[in-house]
Write a structure and sequence with these properties.
522 residues; 8-stranded mixed beta sheet; 12 helices; 24 strands
Length: 522
């Protein structure tokens, strides 16, 4: 492949929520990017709908959480309901943790919003070059970078792009992952499904019992937007090409509904469950569905991809800006691959729980019980009990300084806030509408009740801010009140903890050198 037409620090492949989030995060760091997306526009389909509390914390850091929430459903929609048909009453229901109501462990509330409303907000969150209808068709690593060939199918043109790094967020059928020869593990394809977007007046059965998801024996129904619109998804019928989708959805609504579904669009898709064997090869890194295809039950897939980008982008910025060594990027796979595997395990488990609910319901009715009698759900009210996975992710890598031995437990059901290294910084209010998480940004944050002792430390050219922590913020999930400190990474995870004042003038410098595998001058 001859020389490049365009040179850029980071080439992002894929314009879904993960690629767009990465673009916005790198823009905050001042890292120029080129994003290419093979489709001609943002997706018109609703697809992913749950933005959990951790993603909203990341979007709060980007300054766009308010705009996302403004287009989202009211909190009372943060609930799932189980019905025989949409026309029937609930036989079971459960709240979505962190969405239906605030949780004390976070300054934000998760939201229900359709992906086709989320993506425009993410696109507007950053500047830089974005090319739709541009498909990556070849790439090869060379000295100091990657050379990619991008084709514009409509114009019949090709552009050679040289990038220092490539961030591949091009979906479960990732072209980049395939070209790198990276395999996947896991159950694989779980079946073919169809989503039907339609309009119908369903207020009679749903207005007084709102939900983000209605699971029925005839498919799943979801309201799409606060101002109207619905989607149904279920297994793709055998003769999909000739299916009467309006009639199919109308039947799924229930025999007594007497409602005609006006079909707007139809999308066929495959449900997959797999994790890439590697998240990086050379200067090419995988994120989102390219790294892990997660079944949608529980709303984990898009959110774990957003967290991928949050973990990766500060490391890319550090390497590109010279205050971190390339070895720091190795911690991306070390930290995120276990999370992806656990997320997949839980999502597959969520699917099994849904099957169990339907089985319980069938046995319930066969036993002669009344159809109006509730069915006890086989999980807690905390919607598949996933808060431990959403907020409790803990890392163990070279980008965390800890004396603890053994791997962190990423699969704890409940979230217990802790200020131990590797964990997300616990949320505490520092002032009106200002959380400890708001102290994090495009820098390392040192939280301490005694900033004078720490500000004398030499910190070279690393981006660092010192934040005064009031003395009453003491406890097992907070810094010691005796002059200690927490060093928090730009992604909000604790990098180091000291329970006493610095023993010498190089404590902080030595920590930053170890964390970033680099010792900048200064």
């Amino acid at each position: 492949m001859p020389g490049a037409d365009v040179e850029v620090p980071v080439l992002i492949v894929g314009g879904g929520p993960v690629g767009l989030t990465a673009r916005a995060l790198l823009d905050r760091w001042g890292v120029p990017t080129l994003l290419v997306e093979k489709h001609r526009e943002l997706s018109p389909f609703p697809r992913s709908r749950l933005v959990n509390v951790r993603s909203m914390e990341i979007f709060r850091q980007l300054g766009i959480a308010g705009r996302i929430a403004a287009d989202a459903f009211a909190p009372e929609y943060g609930r799932v309901r189980f019905r025989d048909t949409l026309y029937d009453p609930d036989f079971a229901t459960a709240a979505m943790v962190g969405v239906h109501a605030p949780v004390p462990e976070s300054p934000v509330v998760g939201t229900l919003t359709s992906q086709d409303r989320l993506e425009p907000v993410l696109l507007a969150a950053a500047g830089g070059d974005v090319r739709f209808g541009a498909e990556l068709v070849a790439l090869e690593e060379e000295s100091g970078g990657v050379l990619a060939l991008v084709a514009d199918r409509e114009r019949g043109t090709r552009t050679r792009v040289r990038a220092r790094y490539v961030l591949a967020a091009d979906g479960a059928n990732s072209t980049v992952r395939e070209r790198l020869g990276i395999g996947t593990t896991g159950p694989g394809a779980l079946g073919s499904f169809t989503t039907v977007v339609f309009d119908a007046d369903l207020a009679h059965w749903c207005a007084d019992q709102p939900a983000g998801v209605y699971f029925t024996a005839f498919g799943t129904f979801t309201p799409l937007y606060p101002d109207g619109g619905w989607a149904w998804f279920g297994a793709t019928p055998g003769d999909a090409e000739h299916a009467d989708w309006s009639a199919l959805v109308s039947r799924a609504l229930g025999p007594g509904a007497d409602v005609r579904a006006d079909v707007v669009r139809v999308q066929h898709w495959s449900m997959s469950a797999s994790v890439a064997e590697r998240f990086a090869r050379g200067r090419v890194l995988l994120a989102g569905d390219a790294a892990h295809a997660v079944p949608p039950i529980g709303g984990l897939g898009m959110n774990v991809g957003v967290a991928d980008a949050h973990n990766l982008c500060w490391k890319l910025a550090g390497v590109l800006q010279g205050w971190a060594a390339p070895a720091l990027l190795e911690t991306y796979e070390t930290e995120r691959l276990p999370v992806a595997r656990e997320t997949l395990r839980q999502a597959v488990g969520n699917t099994a729980l849904l099957i169990q609910v339907q089985k319980l319901r069938t046995e319930h009715l066969r036993s002669g019980a009344s159809a109006s009698t509730p069915v006890e759900l086989p999980w807690s009210e905390r919607y598949f009990a996933q808060l431990g996975l959403v907020l409790g992710v803990a890392y163990r890598s070279g980008a965390v300084l800890t004396d603890q031995t053994g791997p962190p437990d990423p699969c704890a059901t409940e979230y217990v806030p802790t200020a131990l290294p590797g964990h997300r910084m616990p949320h505490h209010w520092l002032g009106p509408d200002r959380s400890t998480l708001d102290a994090c940004g495009e820098w390392f944050t040192l939280l301490t009740p005694d900033p004078a002792r720490w500000e004398q430390q030499g910190t070279g050219s690393w981006p660092l801010r010192v934040e005064t922590l009031p003395g009453d913020h003491a406890g097992p999930d907070r810094p010691s009140p005796h002059g200690g400190a927490l060093l928090v990474r730009p992604d909000g995870h604790i990098a180091a903890r000291w329970d006493e004042p610095p023993s010498n003038g190089t404590t902080l410098r030595h920590a930053l050198t170890a964390l970033t595998a680099h010792a900048p001058a200064g």
